[in-house]
């Protein structure tokens, strides 16, 4: 649903999941932390300066985004992300955890294979500073306009 | 686990879930989009300028963060977040979706009750620009240091 890959897309995450290291993927097999029958966890190749060693949880099969993910895979993503967040707390001694998951190129999804980012957070890091600065308190009547739109479409979506 | 509330914490999300509107919560009952036996969805009170009408998915019971969430609630959070992402695509005609979930004050968690943010994304919005600018390609050997730490702690965490 709302897919953006072409038939010749060389999926860097599928390559990693298949145990392949070549010029089409940045993933190294050494980055793999965990694998089960449905999902895998890797250290992400790109890092945010204040959140070194952040990880991604990915399905083993190719699903492009959140809209496409089968429910049993989504359940497992939750279980493993919770376990990895707790593991990161122990391993990195971090002070918090932020998860993020981008969908579609307009949403800054670069690898077009579902991946949930899990970032370690530290007291005073500037990770979210730009979003926090742009955060504004809305008026209840402004919110009504949006809740009305969502409630109208919700019955159409399973 | 890793909790930060005190006994007298007036949880703004619990108040919303109980149908209460008062000075201790910004949530209005008009912000409620969806409710089932385990989770509720609201239009968030604070908005990011480029992502108006963003929503939060919350458990009906009080669980502070990702570490604490019971598995059946986590499963339902996944199901509802997927459905809401698809609903937002229809209702807002947005070009992408980003989810984010913060844990602990150091992770910029303000309301100390688990909430998953779901943001509409649009072509050319500047939502993630600060993080994208700070993103750097790591070296495989740097990543090994972190994957080793995680693999050491993982067996201790269920």
CATH architecture annotation name of chain A = 2-Layer Sandwich
Number of strands of chain A: 7
Count helical runs of chain A: 4
Report helical residue fraction of chain A.
25-40%
CATH superfamily caption of chain A: HIT-like
Oligomer: homodimer
Q: How would you characterize this protein structure?
A:
The structure is a homodimer of 158-residue chains. By secondary structure, chain A is α+β, with helices and mostly antiparallel strands. Chain A has a single domain (29-156), classed as HIT family, subunit A, CATH 3.30.428. In chain A, 30% of the residues lie in helices and 22% in strands. The first copy, chain A, is built from 4 helices and 7 strands, in the order αββββαββαβα. Chain A has a 5-stranded antiparallel sheet, with helices on one face. In chain A, β1 (32-35) and β2 form a beta hairpin. The longest helix of chain A is centred in the middle third of the chain and has 22 residues, at 71-92. Chains A and B meet through β1, β3, α2, β5 and α3 of A and β1, β3, α2, β5 and α3 of B. β7 (135-137) of chain A pairs antiparallel with β3 (46-48) of chain B.
């Amino acid at each position: 649903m709302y897919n953006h890959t072409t038939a010749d897309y060389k999926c860097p995450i599928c390559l990693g999941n298949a145990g392949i290291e070549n010029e089409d993927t940045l993933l190294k097999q050494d980055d793999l932390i965990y694998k089960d029958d449905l999902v895998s966890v890797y250290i992400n190749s790109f890092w945010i300066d204040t959140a070194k060693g952040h990880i991604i949880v990915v399905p083993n099969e190719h699903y492009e985004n959140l809209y496409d993910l089968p429910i049993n895979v989504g359940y497992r993503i939750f279980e493993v992300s919770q376990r990895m967040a707790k593991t990161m707390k122990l391993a990195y001694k971090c002070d918090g955890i932020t998860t993020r998951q981008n969908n579609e190129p307009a949403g800054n999804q670069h690898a077009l294979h579902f991946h949930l980012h899990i970032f370690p957070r530290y007291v005073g890091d500037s990770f979210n500073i730009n979003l926090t600065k742009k955060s504004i308190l809305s008026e209840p009547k402004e919110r009504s306009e949006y809740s009305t739109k969502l409630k109208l479409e919700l019955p159409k979506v399973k």
